[in-house]
Amino acid sequence: METAILLISCPDRKGILAEVTGFIAKNGGNILHADQHIDFQSSTFFMRIEWELDGFLLPKEKIEEAFRPIAEKFGMDYQLHFSSEVKNVAIFVSRYDHCLYDLLYRFKAGELPGNLKLVISNHTDLQPVVEMFGIPFYYFPKNRENKLSVEEREIELLEREGIDLVVLARYMQILSDRFVNRFRNRIINIHHSFLPAFVGAKPYHRAYQRGVKIIGATSHYVTEELDQGPIIEQDVVRVSHRDSVEDMIRKGRDLEKIVLSRAVKWHLENKILVYDNKTVIFN
Amino acid sequence: METAILLISCPDRKGILAEVTGFIAKNGGNILHADQHIDFQSSTFFMRIEWELDGFLLPKEKIEEAFRPIAEKFGMDYQLHFSSEVKNVAIFVSRYDHCLYDLLYRFKAGELPGNLKLVISNHTDLQPVVEMFGIPFYYFPKNRENKLSVEEREIELLEREGIDLVVLARYMQILSDRFVNRFRNRIINIHHSFLPAFVGAKPYHRAYQRGVKIIGATSHYVTEELDQGPIIEQDVVRVSHRDSVEDMIRKGRDLEKIVLSRAVKWHLENKILVYDNKTVIFN
Amino acid sequence: METAILLISCPDRKGILAEVTGFIAKNGGNILHADQHIDFQSSTFFMRIEWELDGFLLPKEKIEEAFRPIAEKFGMDYQLHFSSEVKNVAIFVSRYDHCLYDLLYRFKAGELPGNLKLVISNHTDLQPVVEMFGIPFYYFPKNRENKLSVEEREIELLEREGIDLVVLARYMQILSDRFVNRFRNRIINIHHSFLPAFVGAKPYHRAYQRGVKIIGATSHYVTEELDQGPIIEQDVVRVSHRDSVEDMIRKGRDLEKIVLSRAVKWHLENKILVYDNKTVIFN
Amino acid sequence: METAILLISCPDRKGILAEVTGFIAKNGGNILHADQHIDFQSSTFFMRIEWELDGFLLPKEKIEEAFRPIAEKFGMDYQLHFSSEVKNVAIFVSRYDHCLYDLLYRFKAGELPGNLKLVISNHTDLQPVVEMFGIPFYYFPKNRENKLSVEEREIELLEREGIDLVVLARYMQILSDRFVNRFRNRIINIHHSFLPAFVGAKPYHRAYQRGVKIIGATSHYVTEELDQGPIIEQDVVRVSHRDSVEDMIRKGRDLEKIVLSRAVKWHLENKILVYDNKTVIFN
Prior knowledge:
The structure is a homotetramer. By secondary structure, chain A is of the alpha/beta class. Chain A folds into two domains: 3-82, Alpha-Beta Plaits, CATH 3.30.70.260; 87-281, Rossmann fold. The first copy, chain A, has helices at 16-26, 60-74, 98-109, 127-132, 147-160, 177-182, 203-210, 245-268, and strands at 3-11, 30-39, 44-52, 77-82, 87-93, 114-121, 137-139, 165-168, 187-191, 214-221, 231-238, 272-275, 278-281. Chain A has a seven-stranded mixed beta sheet with strand order 7-6-5-8-9-10-11. A four-stranded antiparallel beta sheet of chain A has the order 2-3-1-4, with helices on one face. A two-stranded antiparallel sheet of chain A has the order 12-13. The longest helix of chain A is centred in the last third of the chain and has 24 residues, at 245-268. Chains in contact: A-B, A-C, A-D, B-C, B-D, C-D. At the A-D interface, β11 and β13 of A face β11 and β13 of D.
């Protein structure tokens, strides 16, 4: 069953919901999900609405055109997606394999509604794992000197393969502003701390040092500022004085896997809207 | 700022959302919250929509009449509430005081948007506590013989005081079917287990006996069948072999307080719809 | 660094701890972990103590003999393990692959200190997965008629391979009493509910039907009674009216993986004592 | 049943456990709880051991003297407590009343094994609440000029009343180094964030601004550096884009109450050891 999905944000005012749902009803659409949110601080309206295309009077390729007058009337930012348009995904990885395995399994099992096209790494360690799952592996060694030129080739590959989403599955390299800007709100990173605590390197070591009683993991869209992008999902697990740094790292791996995979899933289902460096998650 | 709230359930079909939001828009209403849900198994549509009355073209007392044709067209069950109509609440309690204190505090602090009118107990132990908070206390001793006649007098009192919601804050008596039926979906109980585990008496003792690693608490609407009513909220806490029954009881008290108070809050905010012995929570 | 581990249970009385730690100290042992617990209801003493073998005056093979008088004096049940003795593990699986993948990864990554020797299944579906990880796969088709004789052959294989622990990774067959008895407290199952809620088949469907707000998973040792064995670990995740049965199944998979792997880890680390159909977890 | 409790920390070496438990056994003591921990990074040994005084051959007042040679042999820091010595507690509060009510209730209900002697505030708002519970209330208005001299008078009062523990129940004043030093590891504060995130003022506002998906609360011993003291306990609750700052504050209140009361309970039960700006919690 194919569906259409509208993601909308605009200044809040009267009548938006009636106009959007009226548009769908008038064209015979059967709404499956409708979720709206108003940020009262900034007076901004957000919406995700999904309806069946079967029986809808407008053909797919005419919907956007037909909707545009409403979008213009309310000054909407909007995205129109179709469930049939599966996003292409690239995973970036260095040497840690837990998130990679987890994602490979979830794509293979059909849990993540995307098309995993390729894996890129700055090391060859995980090539056998990736190929075991039948996914093309690309090796792009990086150092301080070649970083920007290598990124050029990576971007070229991503564009050639039509990549919609880049997942940094514990990729131990910082992407350039140019790269980030090229894939704005389409790069998801997993940070192994409960942000904004422990931004940057070695968060488990610092959590151990600080003596926290709970550790966390955070998935977020990548922006130019390290670990400062819009947070998509977080989760936590209890630790105690009995847990060494190694125990924290081990417990944290399970968090990282789950927190990253939820973010990837919601992104692929078009359930995330970014605004003001924050996310609205329609789930 | 006064608001109107519509709670709707009806068979799902095309156009409901457009019709309801169109009704509000046409009358100049500014929607603050709109949340809908479709149960695809039973093909049932649920909705909670809240809009400002300030600037709404229909006077409060005309809204229901104006909305009725839409309700009839779609075969809706609906409730129309106004934020200005604060519900009257009665608490029933026996001898345990933790949920009572918690609710007394929350009502006093303004956390719960209701009017706590009175407390009823089958014991006098907690009379000083209740009166310390300035709330009328009624003592209705019960035994097997007088139970039904005492309930009659309780119902009489509740009706005289215009009670909309009865909260059983660890009330150790089972209400008769007649009582339950009189306040259908308006009696909230806290059960000190993670239902459906440990229905009935002494759940912490049985949890200890079974060796569970997590205990829970459940708030639910009371029905004729013991601990079988629609679940409103649940929460849990970890236990280990180190926890005695007494430790579980102590840890459980904090759960019970929170789980009960959330349910009371949502009910008072008209955020709960009951169907098929389950709840839809619009929060 | 090799260590010795003593797991002890006995009637509680004065002097046990002094005697056991005195035994280790007298022989020059450096204690790394010592954890004791007294069940005051049954007046039972439990202990796990781990010390370095390096520098210990008794050779490994003499420790048990030297300790026996103490064990006899206090009427101890005890187990003596060495960290160098890695347990042999067999996984039983049917068609669901999420727990299998998870365990295969964890063994491969060295997270689980055991020797995964083989996988047994009553279907061939997961043979490629198992072999992808380089683990021997055995296919034992079962039906009502051949069940007991097939089990004989399974037990034979397990004994030939020196299997210490059997992990049922969503194995959809009930083991006979004979099998269970043969591997008493050495078969770990994952049940996809928060036991004792939803014992038996289709727990997610029943959780959906009951309208619970939290679902869980439980790992336990297998006993003759279905889903009644000693609980090792449980964990939970929130659900709402928005979650379909399929959503619950999906969310539950992540619970099942984590809850099962924790139990396997603790078992392999000799951190579990079973008594009175419950577990003491020294972690 | 009266018990003795030893809290010990010292450089780790062989034989400590045997010597301590031997001391208790030799004198006929019945050990109820024994919990030890070794920090392998710093090679430090920690222990809490509790035994019955009934039947113990040494009279209470002789125990410390008898134990001292062992303490000296191993270079121990140690504390000897008796369950009969109930600690005296003072609560400091400003205008927020949720933690205050919660503590007042828990002391009254016997959940917290301490003697709540008095409440100090820099405002008179909560005087009626405190007196409703029959606890003496002291009003010490503070401003920038008089702060140190007022603190002198507070310390004088605390000393006169024999206060062992100061609980800052959302006390909106920073204590001077002199005060902190006077009650080293005996002042517990509740900070309304998941430390080390959002140190300092308005953490909920900053959590909202940052768009976190989970908020927390932290109880800790107060040191000279703001919100940098040893963390005792933390807990968290989920939030979403739907939660306003006010919702976070409301949800946070329940966290603060629980996280603070757990810390107070453990302190009163002599279950906390502080080292290296961290805590070992023997629970």
